[in-house]
Task: inverse folding
């Protein structure tokens, strides 16, 4: 599916300039809105539509009336609780100053939570293979300012619009303290976030031997997996599973130190 970029219904000069910049950065066509509804534009352009607005960037996948946009989602409440007790941080053994590679960035809720925990001396890189998701989330992380306690942590996340296996293969051994994978669940679950509008465009690949070997080589302390509680991948790839009663997903870890 091709992607085009347009503006708000009544664009200001700033929004027009922003949309033109996005077109150049993503190498996609800029199409004048001409006061058309998103539904009308979907019919006319047969494309996913990025809409530049004053306050945020929205993506309307073809046929969807609800937009996908950046929001901290679960990071908003997880970062208000003691971070050392967050299940991802606890199982990873992440400490202040650690480096963390998120192989499946998605909405970046996990990456934001970890970024807040490791602090300014830490390093967070997030790979997202869907270029539209990577772009919307990357821009959102840089400009979202409604939760001041998270602004710095969000800005520190470096987004890479690449497949994580390709990225891992460029890394030296022990490049990151913790490497994390949260592939799309094969079973549909109800989501509290606006990810549902983009779900069908997300990369649905599951863990493979190649991915695991590359992750284990590049991780210094641990490789961590989040998956559906029915997933057999924990046992298949040698993770120690942390059972979380009454939750739809579990975490697993392979520790090296
Ligand atoms: C379940 S979501 C991750 C949610 C994320 N942990 C969060 O906190 O929002 C999975 C995301 O990873 C992306 N993805 C899946 N496999 C990938 C891969 N091999 N390389 C890069 N991105 C991948 C998908 O496109 C999707 O956006």
Result:
């Amino acid at each position: 599916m091709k992607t085009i970029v347009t503006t708000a219904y009544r664009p200001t000069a700033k929004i027009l300039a922003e949309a033109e910049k996005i077109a150049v950065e993503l190498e996609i066509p800029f199409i004048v809105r001409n006061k058309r509804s998103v539904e009308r534009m979907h019919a006319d352009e047969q494309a996913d539509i990025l809409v530049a607005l004053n306050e945020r960037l929205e993506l309307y996948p073809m046929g969807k009336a609800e937009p996908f946009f950046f929001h901290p989602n679960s990071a908003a409440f997880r970062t208000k609780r003691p971070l050392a007790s967050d299940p991802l941080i606890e199982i990873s053994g992440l400490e202040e100053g650690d480096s963390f590679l998120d192989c499946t960035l998605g909405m970046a809720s996990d990456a934001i939570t970890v970024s807040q925990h490791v602090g300014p001396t830490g390093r967070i890189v997030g790979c997202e293979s869907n270029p539209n998701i990577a772009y919307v989330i990357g821009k959102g992380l840089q400009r979202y300012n409604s939760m001041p306690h998270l602004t710095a942590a969000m800005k520190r996340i470096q987004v890479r619009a690449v497949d994580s296996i390709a990225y891992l293969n460029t890394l030296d051994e022990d490049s990151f303290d913790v490497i994390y994978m949260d592939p799309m669940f094969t079973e549909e679950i109800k989501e509290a976030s606006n990810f549902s509008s983009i779900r069908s465009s997300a990369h649905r690949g599951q863990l493979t031997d190649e991915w695991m070997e590359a992750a284990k080589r590049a991780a210094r302390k641990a490789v961590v997996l989040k998956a559906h509680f029915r997933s057999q991948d924990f046992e298949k790839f040698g993770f120690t599973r942390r059972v979380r009663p009454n939750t739809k997903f579990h975490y697993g870890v392979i520790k090296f130190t």
